[in-house]
Amino acid sequence: MNEHLHEHPGDDHDRTHAHPGLRPDVDDRLTYYQIMEIAVRELLIEKGVLSGEAVRREVEKMDARSPAQGARVVARAWHDAAFKAKLLEQGNDALVDLGLERGPYKLVIVENTAEVHNVVVCTLCSCYPRWLLGLPPDWYKSRNYRSRTVREPRAVLREFGLDLRNEVTVRVHDSTADMRYLVLPARPAGTEGWSEEQLASIVTRDCMIGVAVPRADR
């Protein structure tokens, strides 16, 4: 599967939409792949290849992951120019330098600037850097967010409370089966002299997806 990048300059449309996480979504029935996963899992347990306990432990491990890992990465990039340069070139290798899990997929870091704002979506399912951000929010997996973000990103961002200037180009990055994206937000003014811990405290999950920006007054 190839990487998809959609650029949206300031050609905004004046539309009003409900928050993408609140609009009704038809996700109330199991998909073909969910049914397949359940069937394969139950078969593996029945055959003794896996145990229910092993599955439970892995689920608990995934549930324990949080956006704090990603926030550490962003804070270090803001604090250390050499680390930032490596992160932008070799995302997975830079994680190892920070003592974090390298991750099972290629990690691509996209940097926000005064001229460009990045936002991440997975139009096919819910591909997401879980080892850095934990489980994806429900709105990220919704059909509404997945379809609208590539077509009208500015409208979607406004619904999250992020109203960008028309001069800012919006780039939408579509995750793939073997590639994950993480947004490196622009460091906000007023954070000069802050420690990495202070910087990490203002980096939220939504900032690293691209539907929000960090604020020094949080």
Keywords:
alpha/beta; globular; 218 residues; 2 domains; Nitrile Hydratase, Chain A; 3-stranded mixed beta sheet; two-stranded parallel ribbon
Structural summary, described in words:
The protein is an alpha/beta fold and 218 residues long. It has helices spanning 32-46, 52-64, 68-79, 81-89, 91-97, 130-133, 138-141, 143-151, 153-159, 196-201, 205-209, and strands at residues 4-8, 106-111, 116-121, 169-174, 179-184. The protein has two domains: 4-22 and 65-209, Alpha-Beta Complex (Nitrile Hydratase, Chain A); 31-64, no CATH class. Helices cover 42% and strands 13% of the residues. The longest helix has 15 residues, at 32-46. The chain starts with a strand and ends in a 9-residue tail after the last helix. 29% of the residues are buried.
